[in-house]
Queue: 3 jobs
Job 1
Amino acid sequence: MSLRYALLALLSAEPMTAYEVSKQFGASVAHVWHAPDSQIYPELRRMAEAGLVSVTRVEGGPGGGKKRYAMTDDGRAALRAWMNTPAPLSRPRDPQYLRAAYLDWADPGQAREFLLAHRDYYREQAQLLEAVLVTLHERTHPTLIARFRHVPEPERARVVAFRCFAFQGLVDRAKLEVAFAERGLALLDEVAGPPGRS
Amino acid sequence: MSLRYALLALLSAEPMTAYEVSKQFGASVAHVWHAPDSQIYPELRRMAEAGLVSVTRVEGGPGGGKKRYAMTDDGRAALRAWMNTPAPLSRPRDPQYLRAAYLDWADPGQAREFLLAHRDYYREQAQLLEAVLVTLHERTHPTLIARFRHVPEPERARVVAFRCFAFQGLVDRAKLEVAFAERGLALLDEVAGPPGRS
DNA sequence: AAGAGCATGTAAATGGTTACATGATTCC
DNA sequence: GGAATCATGTAACCATTTACATGCTCTT
């Protein structure tokens, strides 16, 4: 059900076509809640059926017959209600750490590959997230710009602060994963003995 | 599919009845891959059908007609193969951070509740995980004891090292979440203005 | 004229959650 | 005798993944 609220959060910035949703999603909300197009399109339709968003056909422009989705008052209320509803903390389900815990079952070479991939992925993520964080601080993030067109100045600082709070958390997490992988790599060297000392 | 390998990893320690699996699961693997009984029992049956585990009926003892599951050579091979197969990194899907990013939509009171719950949950998790970590270091963890009955001494250090590596990672993560929640709480105070200075 | 990107999905399978269902045994 | 816990699941539903499917428009 979170996808629904992830989409509402995005649409709260401004009305968009499904395609724009799908693209802007990738640049913001997807960092906390990934979803492929094949989930976004049907969910938008269901949200329209539920009255959380309104649909208006837009003619002209590239690809005739686009639909423009706009959050309704019901949608706004639903998002607010969800935000105010305490949710049970999600139980861990992490294939990466599952592997890490039982890495004695893997070939040493594969274990190294696994940890290198982990490190590199989160290094890249950290960079990417830091780049997003900068655009949030500078208020140059596209979705933020769109949102601020109808948010009065006094509230803007508050919005920026929460977005930055979350993205800083994501950056910290990514860096933690890098450190984790590096400790794992050091451990592999240790367990195998230092190179050249078979 | 990870559940299957989580269960194999657990059964690699020693043969167990489904009930023992379900209980020991909670004390070890569940920290990286949670699963309820209603998922464990059917999955064990499917694993037996696939020949990854063997089933023998055990009479006597409490509750006549228990089944004892033991990992087969095929199971061992499947676990090893899975461990050596690079898996794509899992995309983020985190309801907690989704909320955090859009906390401007929540009532300040609810936002505080949310962050307090987050902090307390991960504080407790950190404690719990640290307790598990100690039993791993000391080699008093039940599953580890069972496993070591058929693992020769020279390999034991390696096994302990990887388990500790993963659980230390989990502890670090939990602590990061506590720090995250605390930064959020500080932010709430800041945004609302310090108390007594309306 | 070809290729990138716009635009919109459907279908089938898998995996996971929630709620329910039942009966034995051991400890107090 | 009652409570806890041992012991084993089923059924229905919901969410997610993967793969496929189609056709337009703008740029080079």
Job 2
Amino acid sequence: MSAPDRSSWEDIRAEVLRRLNTRVWKPGDLIPGETELAREFGCARATVNRALRALAEDGLLDRKRRAGTRVPLRPVRRASFAIPVLREEIEGRGLAYRYVLLKRETAPAPSEIGTAMRLGSAARLLHVTSVHLGDGAPFVFEDRWINPEAAPGVTEAPLERVSANEWLLMHTPYSQGDITFTADAVRTAEAAALAAAPGQPAFVMERTTWNLERPVTTVRQVFAPGYRVRTEL
Amino acid sequence: MSAPDRSSWEDIRAEVLRRLNTRVWKPGDLIPGETELAREFGCARATVNRALRALAEDGLLDRKRRAGTRVPLRPVRRASFAIPVLREEIEGRGLAYRYVLLKRETAPAPSEIGTAMRLGSAARLLHVTSVHLGDGAPFVFEDRWINPEAAPGVTEAPLERVSANEWLLMHTPYSQGDITFTADAVRTAEAAALAAAPGQPAFVMERTTWNLERPVTTVRQVFAPGYRVRTEL
DNA sequence: CAGTGGTCTAGACCACAAG
DNA sequence: TTGTGGTCTAGACCACTGG
């Protein structure tokens, strides 16, 4: 009735998915073990394992040693999306990309920046603000602090031409980071650069990254009103 | 110098990651092939494959047949986060969860809903609005349309007690969907339920799901001002 | 303690794309 | 054409955990 003749782990994944979506296997059910499924599909256990592991990574199955593989009662689905490299995001929409450096200075870290980056006191950072435009219209306003010790050469980088975003991607790896998304009102200081009215709702992305425990950069990106992040499940 | 004595694919992953973060292998570089790495690490090629595949899934390597494995010039990192089941999201913050059904009616789909769900004309849907509260304070306002044909039994579901969110999770699987995030101004119709002023910036999540090509539900969730989504990289 | 998933191996063949 | 990653296999041992 079901098992495909030619198996690959993706076929098995698809078939298991079908059984989940058609409720052949219902939430709370224990599904057959890998060995039995391997027999049914006529393949090696490792192949079944690959398929089930992929589904478990998507939150569609719960797997535990000894306990077996179970259909979760309330599947916790995960959404994932690419963190946009702004130039590509903008060009991907068919718009001409332009980037304008607004400010570049070396300054002691304000306390909230120091906290976000878990910096010691009184570190001097590179502070850069800029706008990314699509077809001449402001797309994102960016306020960034960079730790020169973790990004050697950044003080001499040609940030008039290359956005800090891209310069860092090419010159400074990072091993960990965190992102938050918020809706925030456009601030007075940002309004002009964004060609938006202060107080308008804007999508805001804040990121801080570290490389091997050393803080690299923290950035606040304010997207022009109307921006949408879209992804599939 | 580097290769751990005892290898597992995670050790190899970690070691490769270290070489990327310390720029032993730089952006644009071609790294050694699986066979050679297997020799270096003293393990089977499949083990190296597992490690490199994991890194490639995170966007930290580019792999192509025949061409080999390359360190991307501009790594496209992906962020992923769990789509919150609201009750758990709220309880996870240590708040008491409460849910209030505001409206429940059967109505023809408005055109924008029909479009989002790719419905034929004149379908009658179940329309539900509700609020989820944490310690009594509005947390999310939810405006949802459900296709009864894809969610049998939903018309009789006790939505006064169980949120449509949870009822659907337990009773109706979905195979695909899309999500968008936006910042939007709180609408007048939502303001009272959210205890927020109209026009305030709010984080908005819109989701539509299908099960095997049949539209299941579309929902707009407006989070109370100040809400933040946070995840790690 | 026993049964499940987690991992590893050695070998094989295949699919793809660069030269 | 040829070398690379992608996948599969059959078998093995291990780690965790439920009963």
Job 3
Amino acid sequence: MPLVDALIAKLETTARLSDKDRTLLAGLPVVMKTLKAGEDFVDQGSVLDQSAFVIEGVLTKYQVFPDGGRQTVSFHFKGEMPDLHSVLVRRMDHTISAIRDTTIGVVRHEDLRAIMSQSSSLAATLWRETLIDAAIFRQWIANNGKRGALHGTAHLLCELVTRAKAVGLLSPDGSWFLPLTQQHLADAGGISIVHINRTLRSLRQSGLAAIDQGRLRIFDWEKLVALAGFDPLYLHLRST
Amino acid sequence: MPLVDALIAKLETTARLSDKDRTLLAGLPVVMKTLKAGEDFVDQGSVLDQSAFVIEGVLTKYQVFPDGGRQTVSFHFKGEMPDLHSVLVRRMDHTISAIRDTTIGVVRHEDLRAIMSQSSSLAATLWRETLIDAAIFRQWIANNGKRGALHGTAHLLCELVTRAKAVGLLSPDGSWFLPLTQQHLADAGGISIVHINRTLRSLRQSGLAAIDQGRLRIFDWEKLVALAGFDPLYLHLRST
DNA sequence: CGAAACGTTGAGCTAGTTCAATCCTGGTGG
DNA sequence: CCACCAGGATTGAACTAGCTCAACGTTTCG
């Protein structure tokens, strides 16, 4: 299976691609690269001339503060491009690293620009991806702000499961080998690892969802959605 | 002064516009509209066929939760387009309203698409604007997450002053008639109005900044920046 | 002047933190 | 096969940040 298929499949969860656009994407020169768990591959402050998409694994984007604190601002799964924005905004305000061993496909900005200039609908599709990322950021502002730990964590889980499902990462029984530790969830929510642990316990004890041995199981999707106030509209998935 | 000048001036704070792009923008059909303080002009869930930019006044973007809670996700000043993304992502996941009496310029998506198809550099400039908005969202995730009330509020003030200065909203003495009440700041930070009040008091008592009678005065920019951990890089202003 | 909106403060409560200890679980060397 | 180790998960206890309720002060404006 060609490397770009992960990217194409992801784009098709939110947009309709023309045959021409699919062909242009398929012709994109891609260099495959493997990252070790915990490896940074884009540094805060650096300038890029290439972007990457996830082929297999998980990436995270985070900021580091002067005092050493860390705020995670996104997670990226199969097919997603965490640094697509670097095509137009070259200096990075965050670090991107691999959460576990991850395979990415690297494409040069030059080549991306070339296919976008050949198809304005493809350019629009890529722009639209970054706008959906922005909508996700808006939800995360609420997760870390008004929602508070319990509702915010529930919302995050709803979102991650919905996104993972869209690109076919869930097991047939609906569970998911969630590739995140409690530390990762804590860094995303801006809360302590102790508190994320207690928040997850609360979700488990109310029979909504549980993570055990790395596997996320949703027991009561309706109730979890209600608790989170989750409306998948902002993800703009074609299937919902 | 033509209505679009506010938009053009704002775009030029972050991008270089060609004569052609400036001409295209200047030819954009704009309908001026005035909004009363507190008036919603885009509703959560609605579908738009037009976008707006601020001519004079302030807009805010916020989400409303099932329980009636509210999370503000952005403020918009002169020249900014809070719903530019609606060109590609039509259904709104948030409400936009005027904070005080505000004049906006409304442009049809159709006309925006037309000028973008005539100039790919103009299209890129507009796309880039939405990417900078996304970078601001990332900072707000941190403001409401890891930074906490004091550091997060300091960071927000640094950002707002920097943005206001870029479009010439500061008085000659460096102060600014901040068009936000403590309630607005609280909704942005996801904290209570009582707590924002105490946070501002703390900033005032440490001699960093004070808001009195609607006027924001920065006493010690260096210290405020240090407290906030503010690095204006993410705003991508040409002047810094 | 009076009303409405905004700002300020105290007091008691709740959510979330830090520190520290303990417990799994999976992997590795002998 | 087992002992050991490292990273992650879990818990208790004491502490801090932030919330709610309620009262009161101040500014603005008709």
